[in-house]
Amino acid sequence: GQQVQQSPASLVLQEGENAELQCNFSTSLNSMQWFYQRPGGSLVSLFYNPSGTKHSGRLTSTTVIKERRSSLHISSSQTTDSGTYLCALERTGSFNKLTFGAGTRLAVCP
Amino acid sequence: ETAVFQTPNYHVTQVGNEVSFNCKQTLGHDTMYWYKQDSKKLLKIMFSYNNKQLIVNETVPRRFSPQSSDKAHLNLRIKSVEPEDSAVYLCASSPGGARDTQYFGPGTRLLVL
After folding, report:
1. % of chain B at pLDDT higher than 90
2. Which of A15, B23, B106, B108 is deepest in the core (most CB within 10 A)?
3. Is B43 close to A86, i.e. CB distance below 8 A?
4. pLDDT at B1
5. CB-based contact (8 Å) between A45 and chain B?
6. Residue B104 CB neighbour total at 10 angstroms
7. Over the stretch B15-53, which tens digit does the pLDDT of each residue have?
């Protein structure tokens, strides 16, 4: 089965609303990262967060290893937040390889 | 600021042809990667090089071959393309291994007719 599952698959927000994106994994991991992909664009790293909580502006990432989940919280969403959010993990014993989830497609409407 | 460069941006070709994609990073990183992103946006690693040495080689068809002349360059050649090779090919680099932040190029979109 899929080792990294993201939910929801897609999400539509009104500007100003908050969003909570989930990443659940079925394997032990060495590291967890969150990426943002602009429509038709390249990936940008948001967080390297193997455990605990990290903040960056309006974004917060929380990884709870024993519960095998990581979340990305977007507060006060803006139209420029629209795009695809991907989580990726390096599985234990899988050196130098990231396994990606299928992503959450976010659309923020004005 | 773009520091991982890929060429071409877009390539259309016919089944059976050979194609080559180039990737260069100016970040001084030791590790470079090739990923394939399919039509469903699922990203899968294909190859990883560290200082010109192949360290990850996923199960990809033999017609795919990476080439690295130095640690700043990692090219990808597809010997005889198939329709299922149509995808976006993304190059990335990181200072060390997968636990480091990876920096991605803009991608090369391949369409095989």
Report:
1. 71
2. B23
3. yes
4. 55
5. yes
6. 23
7. 999 999 999 999 999 999 999 998 888 899 999 888 888
CB contact under 8 A, A96 and B90: no
* Strand B108-112 versus strand B10-13 pairing type: parallel
Q: Is A86 within 8 Å of chain B by CB?
A: yes
Q: Which residues of B touch A84 (CB under 8 A)?
A: 41
DSSP characters for A12-75?
Answer: EEETT--EEEEEEESS-EEEEEEEEE-TTS-EEEEEE-SSEEEEETTEEEEEEGGGTEEEEEE-
Measured CA to CA, the distance from residue B13 to residue B85 in angstroms comes to: 11
Please report residues of A whose CB lies closer than 8 A to that of B40. 102
Nearest chain B alpha carbon to A95: B98
Q: Both tokens of residue B64? A: 């795919």
Q: Which pLDDT belongs to residue B51?
A: 83
Give the mean pLDDT of B12-16: 97
